[in-house]
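[step 3/7] inverse_fold.run input=structure_tokens len=105
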């Protein structure tokens, strides 16, 4: 029974990867979904079903926050993301640092 469940899970993951590749191909093609589907022999309704499933999978795979030990330093801590730079004192509270990182990510 367990091997059947594992096989089904693997098949589902492979299918979702294939669908994600199709969604990415459509979105980077410069074509509308209708045009892309026509060129690739996929029904528009099927494409949107697959898009929905890929999005659901993406939402289910929430990022994991890994605990981080911040050593005591005399210099500031700097975090940069997308051109935004935040500087904090080295003795910042771990809770505040974690909240900041969660907000930025």
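[step 3/7] decode complete -> sequence:
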């Amino acid at each position: 029974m367990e091997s059947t469940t594992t096989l089904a899970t693997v098949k589902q993951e492979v299918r979702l990867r294939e669908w994600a590749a199709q969604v990415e191909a459509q979105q980077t093609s410069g074509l509308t979904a209708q045009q892309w589907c026509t060129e690739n022999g996929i029904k528009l309704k099927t494409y949107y079903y697959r898009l929905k499933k890929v999005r659901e999978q993406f939402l289910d795979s929430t990022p994991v926050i890994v605990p981080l030990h911040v050593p005591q330093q005399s210099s500031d801590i700097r975090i940069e993301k997308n051109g935004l730079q935040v500087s904090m004192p080295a003795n910042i509270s771990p809770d505040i640092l974690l909240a900041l990182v969660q907000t930025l990510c």
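[step 4/7] annotate
The helical segments are 2-29, 33-40, 44-60, 94-104.
The longest helix spans residues 2-29.
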